[in-house]
Amino acid sequence: MEKRNHHPETVCIQGGWNPGNGEPRVLPIYQSTTFKYSSSEQMGRLFDLEEDGYFYTRLANPTNDAVAEKICELEGGVAAMLTSSGQAANYFAVFNICSAGDHIVSAATIYGGTSNLFTVTMKKQGIDVTLVDPDAPEEEIEKAFRPNTKAVFGETIANPALVVLDIEKFARLAHKHGVPLIVDNTFATPINCRPFEWGADIVTHSTTKYMDGHALTVGGCIVDSGNFDWNAHAEKFPGLTTPDDSYHGVIYTEKFGKKAYITKATAQMMRDLGSIQAPMNAFLLNIGLETLHLRMPRHCENAQKVAEWLSAREDVAWVNYPGLKDNKYHALAEKYMPSGSCGVISFGLKGGREAAGVFMDRLKLAAIVTHVADARTCVLHPASHTHRQLSDEQLVEAGVDPSLIRLSVGIENADDIIEDLRQALEQ
Ligand SMILES: *Cc1c(COP(=O)(O)O)cnc(C)c1O
Question: Which residues have C-beta atoms less than 6 Å from ligand 1?
Answer without folding.
Answer: 85-87, 90, 111, 113-114, 155, 159, 184, 186, 206, 208-209, 218, 220
